[in-house]
Design a protein that fits this description.
There is one protein chain. By secondary structure, the chain is of the alpha/beta class. 40% of the residues lie in helices and 10% in strands. Helix 2 crosses helix 3, helix 3 crosses helix 10 and helix 11 crosses helix 12. The chain is globular, with a radius of gyration of 22 Å.
């Protein structure tokens, strides 16, 4: 199958149209893209499987369209919720578990990455800029651009609220994503030649939505060759598919229920990326991911808070960035009995 480069991209109106397709048409489109990807690469494909909601739904769809032989490849970074790991290992059909490794071949762990490069706090973009400003061999012009912007404006500069990170005792870095998440799959692709299906939906992030609008579902060329059959789906679409197909999900999400407006939601965790990741935590309402972890996974919480970089504990770094790691009640400072308050 020969596909023109221009056919890979979506015009803005096409993307908007695809976002608001009827649910049934989105399902058909996803199944079609799965089949097209398989045929284009003569079966040398695999699913990048995380055990989360999106990839669990995609695994089910791939099994329905192509059968059990396509590998569901799970990268065990050591940062997944234990419930996610148990669920992933129960995947139907061909299942492969891989691990992040250093160039020496030794398995890589989050504690080692944090100790060497720094904590994942704020966002990937912010952490990258902070790391460059602290350790990069930058020209004066580029340094000024990162700090103050340029004649084109302030887009791309380090936000003022995060400038203090440049002078902190500890380092801030996005390196854990490269070493723990990207490296295992990059190595797997090199070793096998297989091309991935990835369970990314349109409401994952602005960056991913924008990327999908530029490429469409199947990306046959470029720096990252991939198929994202659920690219036009929303979280509501994924939850509906899981309910209608009666697909088993990890217990960490709780139950899937419907609200008074008929919208599906989960009663447990809403997102289950890396447990110890601080990216985006400053935007969360309380109780945030770390405060919930103290209650649901206290052993993991203790390990997480005591990780260090340059003599600074992770808990101290998070708190310095305005990210609470305990509620007032957990810290023993305040306890309210609202039922008897009246």
């Amino acid at each position: 199958m020969y596909i023109l480069q221009d056919e890979l991209k979506l015009n803005e109106w096409q993307f908007s149209q695809r976002k608001y397709l009827p649910y049934e048409m989105k399902v058909k489109l996803a199944e079609t893209r799965i089949q097209e990807w398989y045929e284009n690469w003569y079966g040398d494909v695999y699913l990048s499987y995380s055990g989360g909601l999106d990839s669990t739904a995609l695994l089910y769809m791939i099994r329905m369209v192509l059968g059990d032989e396509i590998p569901a490849v799970f990268s065990n970074t050591g940062l997944e919720f234990p419930e996610i790991v148990r669920h992933a290992r129960r995947a139907s059909g061909n299942f492969v578990e891989i691990y992040p490794r250093w160039k020496s071949g030794k398995r890589a762990y989050f504690s080692e990455v944090v100790d060497k490069y720094g904590f994942p706090i704020a966002s990937k973009e912010t952490a990258s800029k902070v790391s460059k400003l602290r350790h990069g061999n930058l020209s004066d012009r580029y340094r000024n651009y990162l700090l103050y912007g340029d004649e084109r404006g302030k887009f791309g500069m380090l936000p003022k609220k995060w400038r203090f990170l440049v002078c902190m005792q500890c380092d801030i870095s996005p390196k854990c994503c490269d070493i723990l998440k990207k490296e295992p799959f990059t190595r797997y692709v090199k070793e096998t030649g297989r091309k991935p299906y990835i369970g990314i939906t349109q409401d994952e992030s602005f960056r991913r939505e924008h990327q999908y609008s530029k490429t469409g579902c199947n990306v046959y060329s470029g720096a990252l060759i991939k198929s994202q059959p659920l690219g036009s789906w929303t979280r509501a679409d994924v939850l509906r598919y899981i309910v209608e197909k009666d697909i088993e999900i990890s217990s960490v999400y709780g139950d899937i229920l419907q609200d008074e407006f008929g919208q599906y939601y989960t009663t447990g965790e809403q997102r289950t990326g890396c447990m110890f990741c601080g990216f985006g935590a400053h935007l969360e309402a309380e109780p945030n991911r770390f405060q919930r972890m103290l209650v649901t996974h206290p052993k993991h919480y203790k390990i997480c808070m005591n990780l260090t970089n340059n003599g600074v504990r992770y808990e101290e770094a998070l708190n310095a960035c305005g990210i609470p790691t305990k509620t007032w009640e957990q810290a023993g400072q305040l306890s309210l009995d609202l039922k008897n308050a009246a």
